[in-house]
Amino acid sequence: MALADLYLEARQCPFPRLGRIIGDFVLYDSLLMGVVSCRIAGDHVKALDIPVPDEESLAAAENLRAKSNVTPDEAEFLAYYAMLERLRESLRQDA
Are the CB atoms for 78 and 84 separated by under 8 Å? Predict the structure, then answer.
């Protein structure tokens, strides 16, 4: 899927409730979406410019993935996190 298509998909997803309380996830989301937006607009993006999630967000995602049964809020967070990871990977391939 093209970066622009992933970006449009991401913009349509509601921000997860847990994303507001886990680490710096709000900042990560904002930075990543900004970099993607710039790249779609034609700006060159170096691999070092691509944001990475903070340690607390990474740990939360790993812990939630390991759970056998997640709550709806946890599932929402994991789905959104996975979408951001797809955006990051697409940016990395394009950088």
Answer: no
For 28-72, the three-class secondary structure string (H helix, E strand, C coil) is HHHHHHHHHHHHHCCCCCCHHHCCCCCHHHHHHHHHHHHCCCCCH
Return the SS3 of 14: coil
CA atoms within 13 A on the CB side of 89: 8
Residue 47 in this model has a pLDDT that exceeds 80:
yes
CB 91 within 8 A of CB 3: yes
Q: How much is the average pLDDT of 19-34?
A: 97
pLDDT band for position 94 (cuts 50, 70, 90): confident
Position 95 scores a pLDDT of 74
Task: Give the C-alpha separation, 12 to 95, whole Å.
Answer: 25
